[in-house]
């Protein structure tokens, strides 16, 4: 039986469930007084003794109603980073007369993006058996289990409030998703840009290719509610021509206004007119998606493209969209062309020298700008290949 411990070495491991790492509380059977999402917020829980709302005292945590029937309350956390759990902390900060007397923690490993019904039917393994906890305390429990898990179920007996739930452990990557060259072809910081959008009523579609994870719904793209039979979309010009091998469609923070389904198509504008519907080919068939979830899809048949189109059905918000893959030879050359042609004179000279060009090559390369043909790139640049 696991023992109640404190100050253990496992606290040195990262929190795999943290909201900033992509974690989410995907289900709770009750959150009458305080919402479940507070469990994985960053930082310690706060407390305002004067804060009262329509439901009663406002707590920075998850709090359920007082049970009048047998049973217990639980919440399911999807780890932002699946891995081996080395220990958990059930923090009851500020819950003094309404904390649960006991808790337990179970874990499950599931593929894909399971719905609540799938979680109910999953095989759960006990990591922390039913154990006593103290109020207003960071209750720490070591875990000795070497398996990789994706979801944890926190149960409290019979009811009460928990401020934070920390899951410390080691990340274990899924090699089936490590199929790319590591370059996000659509990213704003790499040169991607939004070239078309059906609706940007609430926020800019450029948000979907912005750096990092979102911190709120307002940092994503949200369209208006559709009242017709159509659907919304956003079209993105890639940083350069390349093959997308892994797509990420992130609906983080879109809990009740995420799309029901998405589709991703592509076009190579160097060989076809994007205005011609027949020039587009499918990378991801219309696929159902879940709220508040980072979805990852391996592209079965990668093809070189310069634009991607993300369709959402019928409408709804997207936090981030990623298209990880590799540049084509033409895309690689075009990136270098654009870069060297747009550098200020002094920086261009320094860059060519730094890449190993001789003084003569630097002078001729500098004088040749703007370089318009891929074959005319200075040798020092043509030899570079980040693919």
UniProtKB/TrEMBL annotation:
Residues 22-171, 191-326 form the Allantoicase domain. Keywords: Hydrolase, Purine metabolism. It is an enzyme of class 3 (hydrolase). SUPFAM superfamilies: Galactose-binding domain-like (SSF49785). The keyword Hydrolase applies. One of its GO terms (molecular function) is allantoicase activity. Signal peptide: none annotated. It holds the Pfam family Allantoicase. Pathway: Nitrogen metabolism; (S)-allantoin degradation; (S)-ureidoglycolate from allantoate (aminidohydrolase route): step 1/1. Its EC number is 3.5.3.4. It catalyses: allantoate + H2O = (S)-ureidoglycolate + urea. InterPro entries: Allantoicase, Allantoicase_dom, Galactose-bd-like_sf. Belongs to the allantoicase family. PANTHER family: ALLANTOICASE (PTHR12045), INACTIVE ALLANTOICASE-RELATED (PTHR12045:SF3). This is Probable allantoicase. It comes from Nocardiopsis mangrovi.
């Amino acid at each position: 039986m696991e023992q109640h411990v404190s100050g253990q070495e496992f606290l040195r491991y990262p929190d795999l469930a943290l909201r900033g790492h992509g974690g989410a509380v995907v289900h709770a059977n009750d959150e009458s007084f305080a919402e479940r999402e507070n469990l994985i917020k960053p930082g310690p829980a706060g407390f305002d003794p004067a804060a009262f709302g329509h439901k009663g005292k406002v707590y920075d945590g998850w709090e359920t109603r007082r049970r009048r029937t047998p049973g217990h309350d639980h919440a399911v956390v999807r780890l932002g980073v699946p891995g081996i759990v080395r220990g958990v902390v059930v923090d009851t900060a500020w819950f003094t007369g309404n904390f649960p007397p006991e808790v337990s923690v179970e874990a499950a490993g599931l593929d894909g993006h399971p719905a609540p019904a799938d979680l109910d039917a999953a095989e759960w393994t006990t990591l922390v058996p039913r154990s006593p906890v103290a109020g207003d305390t960071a209750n720490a429990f070591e875990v000795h289990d070497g398996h990789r898990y994706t979801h944890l179920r926190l149960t409290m007996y019979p009811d009460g409030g928990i401020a934070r739930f920390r899951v410390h452990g080691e990340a274990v990557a899924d090699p089936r998703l490590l199929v790319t060259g590591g370059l996000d072809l659509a990213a704003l910081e790499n040169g991607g840009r939004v070239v078309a959008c059906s609706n940007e009523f609430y926020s800019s579609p450029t948000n979907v290719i912005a750096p990092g994870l979102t911190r709120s719904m307002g940092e994503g793209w949200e369209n208006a509610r559709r009242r017709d039979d159509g659907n919304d979309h956003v079209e993105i010009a890639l940083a350069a021509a390349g093959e997308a091998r892994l797509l990420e469609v992130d609906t983080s923070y879109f809990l009740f206004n995420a799309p029901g389904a998405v589709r991703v198509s592509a076009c190579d504008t160097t060989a076809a007119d994007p205005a011609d519907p027949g020039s587009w080919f499918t990378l991801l068939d219309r696929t159902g998606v879940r709220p508040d979830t980072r979805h990852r899809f391996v592209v079965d048949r990668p093809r070189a493209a310069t634009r991607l189109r993300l369709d959402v059905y019928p409408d709804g918000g997207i936090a981030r969209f990623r298209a990880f893959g590799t540049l084509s030879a033409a895309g690689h050359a075009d990136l270098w062309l654009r870069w060297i042609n747009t550098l200020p004179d002094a920086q261009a000279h320094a860059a060519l020298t730094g890449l190993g060009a001789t003084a003569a090559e630097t002078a001729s390369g500098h004088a040749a700008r703007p370089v318009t043909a891929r074959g005319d790139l200075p040798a020092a640049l043509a030899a570079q290949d980040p693919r």
